[in-house]
Amino acid sequence: MPLTVVVGISGGIAAYKSAYLVSALKKRGYDVHVLMTQNALKFVGAVTFETLTGNAVLTDTFERKEEYDVKHVSLAKKADMLIIAPATADILAKAAAGIADDMLTTTLLAAACPVVFAPAMNEAMFADTATQHNISMLKKRGYYVMDTGEGLLACGDVGSGRMKEPDEIIDYAHDVFKSLHDMAGIRVLVSAGPTREMIDPIRFLSNRSTGKMGYSIAQAAINRGADVTIVSGPTALEVPPKARMVHVVSAAEMASQMIAFSQQADIIVMAAAVADYTPRTVSSQKIKKGADMTLELVRTEDILSELGANKKDNQLLMGFAAETQDYEVNAKEKMNKKNLDIIALNDVSRIGEGFESDSNNITLFLKDGTSQDLGSDSKTALSRRIMDVLFAQYQKSR
Fold first, then answer.
1. C-alpha to C-alpha distance for 318 and 316, rounded to whole angstroms
2. CB neighbours of 162 closer than 8 A, spacing ≥ 6?
3. Which residue among 128, 151, 180 closes a domain?
4. Which of 4, 3, 6 is nearest to 103 (CA)?
5. Cβ neighbour number for residue 174 with a 10 Å cutoff
6. Are 235 and 215 in contact (CB under 8 A)?
């Protein structure tokens, strides 16, 4: 799946260089999208960039397409990186202040990916206290602002303020991306959510899992550049952008898909709450009310044991132990019995944590006998810490 780079073009004479930038990004295999301000359109036409990218150039926040889509939000989610080139004094000021009054600035504000600014303006404008303050603010907030080049400016002055050359911008952006995406090329397989074991066409056995922990782990891996596949039971969650999504319902379906995808995975995280039992028989018709009913259950396939038994060299396998008593003993026993490299223990008896919550508590036990208490925190924060440990252990195994 090609990485998506969104190039934002603001109204400066250096906009003509952005055509080469976009063309060079496209030739390197990126999926390139272009956003232009109304002032940028006065320097270079949108058709130029549509021809170079094969994608429509977006300029109007309220532009209507055939399908309903909030474009500045959907494109912000899709983007792996934003490059603003040229970044005028105006766009730097708006970004620093959080102003969102056009397609480019609204997309910028909605984006969670790395953002690179390539400033371009008159020397005096660049040196002005306000501009330097805005650049300082952007850097403090985690944006990446390039230096400017020196030479003859469009106004005839000589000095700093020239936009860096397109190849320099691409090299800079590549270095930023590489530093943040240290898991690029690593294939991560995550199971998430509950399973449903049907009793009749409208009734089923299930559990309280919402899938939030598994989806958060998947997103943490995606954010670091990993190639992520999610095998998920039924949830109400939005599919993480950039994930390969496989929807299942029953434990048997999850077992089939997890075992199949495990053959190519480098890291496997079994975060799903899989039913241990399923009805021996399923009624083809709705069961009517009547006398008391006995439901005969049989064991489902133990997916984690199957994955552990067939684990390949250099493949990292992690499971979860949701416990209400004898926490450490049960977690370590499960890790050893199922041939896991790491197990995440969470105490699901705590109020407001675990199932049906945005928070969790995690202690990791590793096969080498060490452990790490990640504490109680949001599932998003815990997932980032889990991914730190997983990646460190994966590197050790190589």
1. 7
2. 14, 120, 148, 149, 150, 151, 153
3. 180
4. 6
5. 12
6. yes
Helix 46-53 × helix 15-27 angle, to 10°: 10
When pLDDT is cut at 50, 70 and 90, the band that residue 179 belongs to is: confident
Decide if 113 is catalytic: no
Q: Are residues 157 and 276 in the same domain?
A: no
Interval 198-244: pLDDT, tens:
999 999 999 999 999 999 999 999 989 899 999 999 999 999 878 99
Measured CA to CA, the distance from residue 102 to residue 370 in angstroms comes to 52
pLDDT of residue 60: 77
Written as one string, the DSSP assignment of 68-83 is ---HHHHHHHH-SEEE
Mean pLDDT is lowest, of 191-195, 206-210, 315-319, for 206-210
Domain range for 363 is 187-397
Alpha-carbon gap, residue 138 to 206, rounded angstroms: 47
Q: Which band of pLDDT confidence, cut at 50, 70 and 90, is reported for residue 323?
A: confident
Which among 73, 155, 282, 329 is annotated as catalytic? 155
Report the phi/psi class of residue 314: left, alpha or beta, with left for phi > 0 and alpha for psi in -120 to 50.
left
Nearest to 272 by CA among 315, 237, 303, 311: 303
Cβ–Cβ < 8 Å for 157, 123: yes
Q: What is the pLDDT of residue 352?
A: 74
Q: Which of 131, 161, 180 is the last residue of a domain?
A: 180
The answer to whether 250 touches 278, Cβ cutoff 8 Å, is: yes
Helix (H, G, I), strand (E, B) or coil at 141: coil
Two tokens at 37?
Answer: 């301000």
**Which residue pairs, CB below 8 angstroms and at least 24 apart, start in 138-147?**
138/92, 138/95, 138/96, 143/95, 143/115, 143/116, 143/117, 144/114, 144/115, 144/116, 144/117, 144/172, 144/176, 145/87, 145/92, 145/116, 145/117, 145/119, 146/116, 146/117, 146/118, 146/119, 146/172
Provide the CATH number for the domain around residue 92: 3.40.50.1950
Centre a 10 Å sphere on the Cβ of residue 42 and count the other Cβ atoms it contains. 11
> Same domain, yes or no, for 146 and 218?
no
Same domain, 193 and 329: yes
Residues 131 and 236 in one domain: no
Report residue 4 CA to chain centroid gap: 13
